[in-house]
Automatic annotation (TrEMBL):
Transmembrane helix as UniProt keyword: yes
Transmembrane intervals: 29-47, 59-80, 113-134, 140-160
Protein's membrane topology: Multi-pass membrane protein
Cellular compartments annotated: Cell membrane
Organism: Povalibacter uvarum
Name of the protein in question: Putative RDD family membrane protein YckC
Pfam families (alphabetical): RDD
InterPro entries associated with the record: Pra-immunoreactive, RDD
Domain of life (superkingdom): Bacteria
Upper lineage: Bacteria, Pseudomonadati, Pseudomonadota, Gammaproteobacteria, Steroidobacterales
GO cellular component: plasma membrane
Alphabetical UniProt keywords: Cell membrane, Membrane, Transmembrane, Transmembrane helix
């Protein structure tokens, strides 16, 4: 379904389609990378020239990963609860809100972040523990594709949901809407 067509469906005013959501996510990669860089710089004095992998720095690598995830989660929760929009969402005129149009609270923001992270667990855990070491490219490619199915299904659900909500929208009683264009 074309995103421009689906976003203008009069039966579902303002519901955000898949394409807009994905493009906002792409835009949000830049601040996510910046957050990762800032957290990583804080850890550099403790590395002493070693690579940032558990085999060389032990628990420090896991602490780093946890802090990067926590900082990223904080970014989303902060923007969703104070503005309803991340930087990428501002560019694509999207807003996370409750059904009544009000801003979500920090509990809904945290639940939303955790539910989205849960969709990615098969990919990251599978890569770290299993197929990250496989040499057979075909098997590895199939495993990666299969591990991404929860993410794909969660967003593809928008096309069949009567309210055009993704799984994590439903789970957290939130929705992503398209804001009207600003008048010049």
């Amino acid at each position: 379904m074309n995103d421009a067509i689906s976003d203008s469906n009069p039966a579902l005013p303002g519901s955000a389609g898949v394409l807009r959501r994905v493009m906002a996510m792409v835009y949000d990669l830049l601040p996510m990378m910046a957050i990762g860089v800032v957290v990583t710089f804080a850890f550099l004095p403790f590395l002493n020239g070693r690579r940032f992998i558990p085999a060389e720095v032990g628990a420090l690598a896991y602490l780093h990963r946890g802090l990067v995830l926590a900082a990223a989660a904080g970014f989303f929760i902060y923007f969703w609860t104070t503005r309803g929009q991340t930087i990428g969402m501002m560019a694509w005129r999207l807003r996370v809100q409750r059904a009544d149009g009000s801003l979500i609270d920090w509990k809904q923001g945290a639940a939303r972040v955790l539910s989205v992270m849960a969709l990615w667990v098969p990919f990251f855990v599978g890569n770290a523990l299993f197929w990250g070491h496989w040499t057979d490219r075909t098997a590895r490619g199939l495993a990666i594709a299969a591990s991404l199915l929860p993410v794909v299904f969660a967003y593809a659900w928008i096309w069949i949901d009567r309210d055009r909500l993704a799984w994590h929208d439903r789970w957290t009683d939130t929705r992503v809407t398209v804001l009207p264009k600003r008048k010049k």
